[in-house]
Specification:
- The complex is a heterodimer of chains A (260) and B (126).
- Chain A has helices spanning 3-7, 10-13, 17-102, 108-122, 166-174, 217-258, and strands spanning 125-133, 140-146, 160-161, 178-179, 189-195, 198-208.
- Chain A is of the alpha+beta class and 260 residues long.
- A six-stranded antiparallel beta sheet of chain A has the order 3-2-1-6-5-4, sandwiched between helices.
- In chain A, helix 3 runs parallel beside helix 6.
- The chains are: A alpha+beta (260), B alpha/beta (126).
């Protein structure tokens, strides 16, 4: 509004047509200014509204980023679990195959060969000895001796193990699986072979393949399996072989008695 | 493209069982040495992949591989050597002899599956 309209009274302004025209002009001008003001307010409101939408969008972006980060973290965890489960599956497969093959035959030589194959192919053993308690006499029969191409270690030279490696001797006494090497023994593992509670021998791992520096955690499962199953498979095969031999002898005697 | 048939050449029956369990999606044929493997290839023209041990009686893996690579018809057959021989020179010898990949025993099953998948992706021979 103009300064005059603010100071003069409405009555004096209506006193002449010229004044009326002024008022009309003033009113038009005021209306124009009001229109301008409305446009400004609208513009401000629009701007304010756009500002709110921008803030909302940035919040949404932040939320999406947070969700993406969570999803990435989940993917990493799932990938890690997948690797773990693949390894676990591999371990179980090794154990299944080893058990299956140990009990797949009743031929003592084949059972021994399977023990050797497990030690070499699944465990990565380069040098090892299989000791089996003799049915008669003292000491342990050296049933298998693998990988000692440059000379046999003194304890295992010959057909019988009479003791000498403290870790192996202790395992043969108490049936506890031991891992080395120790100050007294160069054996990497002394695995007791048990049939029920009877210790009938041991598998002694002396050296691993060059590309396998150490026994891993999963190898422990395999050693435990050998401890429990190798001896019973061997025991069953030997028992079967003995029975089979006796049966054949009896059949021969019967044929002889019949004069056939 | 997946192999139609896989020839396993290993003198260990334990390993035969292992491959049977691990590769149950593929039909397998088995040989206990290189000579048997050559016979199996004659009998099975649809073999597309060979898993080959090195240390075997009668004919070892490298001798078998040499014969295979000199056979015009099957010379390009993909071969994965899987062996306890794990020194660098062993790997180099295997690859020089014509193996497509070399895996050391003991192995994780995914190593073999990964190599087979890689050979499948490379693809033309499989």
């Amino acid at each position: 509004m103009s300064e005059r309209s603010a100071t003069e009274s409405p009555k004096s302004r209506l006193e002449s047509p010229a004044v009326g025209l002024d008022l009309v002009g003033e009113l038009r001008s005021t209306l124009e200014r009001a229109g301008e003001l409305i446009r400004v307010v609208e513009s401000n409101l629009r701007g304010a509204s756009e500002g709110t939408e921008g803030a909302s969008a940035s919040e949404r972006i932040a939320e999406l980023e947070r969700r993406l980060s969570t999803a990435e973290s989940d993917v990493k965890e799932l990938a890690s679990r997948l690797v773990d489960s693949e390894h676990q599956g591999g371990r179980l497969m090794n154990l299944y195959v080893a058990t299956y093959q140990l009990h797949a035959t009743l031929d003592p030589a084949e059972v021994q060969a399977t023990i050797a194959e497990i030690a070499i192919n699944l465990l990565g053993a380069d040098q090892f000895v299989l000791l089996l308690r003799r049915d008669e006499g003292e000491g342990y029969e050296i049933a298998l001796l693998e990988g000692m191409y440059d000379g046999v270690l003194p304890f295992y030279d010959g057909e019988t193990y009479k003791g000498g490696d403290p870790m192996v001797d202790q395992t043969l006494r108490d049936g506890v699986l031991r891992l080395g090497p120790t100050a007294e023994s160069q054996a990497l593992a002394a695995v007791p072979l048990r049939v029920q509670n009877d210790i009938v021998g041991a598998l002694v791992v002396l050296k691993l393949l060059d590309h396998k520096p150490i026994l891993r955690a999963e190898d422990r499962d395999l050693l435990d399996l050998l401890s429990a199953h190798a001896a019973s498979a061997m025991f069953a095969a030997r028992l079967f072989a003995t029975k089979d031999r006796k049966l054949r002898t009896l059949e021969s005697l019967v044929k002889l008695a019949r004069g056939e | 493209m997946q192999p139609r048939k896989v020839l396993v050449v290993d003198d260990s029956k334990l390993m035969h069982k292992m491959y049977e369990v691990m590769l149950r999606q593929y039909p397998l044929v088995y040989a206990l040495d290189g000579r048997q493997a050559l016979d199996r290839l004659q009998e099975n023209s649809d073999v597309d992949l060979v898993l080959l041990d090195i240390n075997m009686p009668n004919m070892n893996g490298l001798e078998f591989l040499a014969q295979l690579r000199s056979d015009g018809a099957r010379a390009a057959l993909p071969v994965i050597i899987i062996s306890t021989e794990g020194r660098e020179e062993d790997t180099a010898r295997g690859i020089e002899a014509g193996a497509n990949a070399y895996i050391k025993k003991p192995f994780h099953s995914e190593e073999i599956l990964d190599v087979i998948a890689r050979l499948e992706t490379k693809g033309s021979a499989l």
